[in-house]
Structures are given as C-alpha cells and as structure tokens.
Amino acid sequence: MAIESESDNSETATSNVTILKSLHEKGIHYKEIIGKGTFSSVRCAWHDEMKQNVALKIIDTSSNSDFIVRFLPREKIIVQQLNHANIIKNFEIINEEPYVCFIQEYAMHGDLLQRIKKNDRIDEEEGRFYFRQLIEALTYLKSISIAHRDIKCENVLLDNCDNVKLSDFGFARFMNADEVSHTFCGSRAYVAPELLRSCPYNGFLADIWSAGILLYVMVTGFMPYDDRNITKMLEKQLQHRITFPRRRNLSVEVKELIYSMVHPEPLKRRPYHEVILSTWLADTKYELRSEPFSQKSD
C-alpha cells in the first residue's frame, strides 16, 4: 500500500492571531506554517533572544476535548523533563488563554515521511543510521518510564545535520514496565494489534511494534498493511504475516529484524537492546552528525 498523509484540520491555522501577536511582542517572530493538526498548528519562528529559528506548536484549548483535558497536561509535564540528543528539545511553554504554545527546537529538514516520499524510500545504509538513533531515543524514554505511543514517520524529524529528532509527545505517558493502558493512541497504520482489538496493552511493547512498522516504511517506501480494511489488516497481523516488495531487494537481515519487532504476541517482540545487537544493526555505531546536511535537488 502506498504512503498517504493523514488529513488535517486547517481551522487552527488561521484562528491563533492573538497568540501570534503576543509572541511577536516577546521577540518571537513567526514565519510559515510547517504543520497542522486537529487542535494545533506548528510554525517556524525567529527567536530574538536565542538568535535562532524555533518551532512554535500552538494548541487551541477552547474545545475542552478529551485530548485537551487528558493529554495536554501530561504533554506539558513530559516535554520539560526530556533531555536527549535525538528528541526534540522544548525551550519554553507559554500559556495565553485559550492557547498553549510550546517553543521547541526547529528541525529544518522536515520529517522522515517527507524524506521517504522525496527519495521513494531510504536505502538500508542510511536507514541504519536513522534507526539506530531512533532506538537510542526510545531506549532513553523507557529508562525514564515514558511510553511515546505515537511512533510514526511523521513524528521523526531531521535536524540541520540530518540527525533524528523524535517529536510529538501528545499521547505520551509515564508508565511502569509492567503497567497496562486502555486508551487507543496513535495512527491505525502503525498501532499494534492489541490496540486495534481494544485490549489492555503495554505502551513500551506497543512502541516496539510501531518502530518495526516505521522501519518497514522507511526501507520499502510502502505501508506493510492496508489500514482501509481493519479486519483484514488485523487478520494478517495476528497470523504474523508481512510481505516485502520484491523490487526493493531488501537484505534478509532487515526483513528478519522487522519480522521480530512486529510479533502479534507483545512479549515476543524484540526488545530495544536486542534490536541494537541484531545482525542488521550490530555494526552501526551510535553517533551524531555534526556537519550541516544539504539535500540534493530533485
């Protein structure tokens, strides 16, 4: 199945003039919109005091929706505790009713889905670099008892040196290692089968599944399952069936890794430390690029 972006509600793009004026007075000068969601918009902006571009994630809280009431307070707490090179840094949170504005690190090279669409897919050599960084970020989150619960290509950003920056902690929550959750979170194409079945689930094990789906999308340029038919998709997932496009000529090692991460039984999914030691990833040293990256023109 080809990759499609989820539709967004554009109303928020034009409804936050008040907060933008307030930010301007604080020396934060907004530029273009770089992302939109149901309750939020994301803009690039120039920060006078920091002397750099930042990202403004502006959330309209006036709807009092379930997301605003339940998830936004969590997100505000979580993002202020994160400190990892492969996770988007949050500099400040500004509350100006009815808006909440997260001032965050700006990832100038967009997201992983945009890169995949531009290049048709990510070759395995480059994919190893990105995936190693993502697994480091997820390992860190688990070490501080945070499950992300919305791992997907759109939430993996790329900075000016082309390093991975995991973003969007709107569905994240603190969890104990053996704790279960009951709330459906994430995108259908990426969520684990236990969520589709409305079963209690472990957020960390669900994140492993989603990371496996992300790896598939990255190296093939396709979605592994057709989420337009949930029943058929779930049937394939529970049978532990996944098909790889022959024309991509993927290595056995990457296919084995993906297969081990999308096991229908959560406890049988390959944990992060074993992902790092897998044949496909074992020789990939964790590192950060320090030279500015220049994308080739189409």
TrEMBL record:
Pfam families named among the record's database cross-references: Pkinase (PF00069)
GO molecular function: ATP binding; tau-protein kinase activity
GO biological process, any: microtubule cytoskeleton organization
Keywords for the protein's UniProt record, in alphabetical order: ATP-binding, Kinase, Nucleotide-binding, Serine/threonine-protein kinase, Transferase
Stored InterPro entries: Kinase-like_dom_sf (IPR011009), Prot_kinase_dom (IPR000719), Protein_kinase_ATP_BS (IPR017441), Ser/Thr_kinase_AS (IPR008271)
SUPFAM superfamilies referenced in this protein's UniProt entry, alphabetically: Protein kinase-like (PK-like) (SSF56112)
SMART domains associated with the record: S_TKc (SM00220)
Protein's UniProt keywords contain ATP-binding: yes
Record domain Protein kinase: where: 28-281
Family statement drawn from the similarity comment of this UniProt entry: Belongs to the protein kinase superfamily.
Record protein name field: CAMK/TSSK protein kinase
Source organism (scientific name): Loa loa
Lineage: Eukaryota, Metazoa, Ecdysozoa, Nematoda, Chromadorea
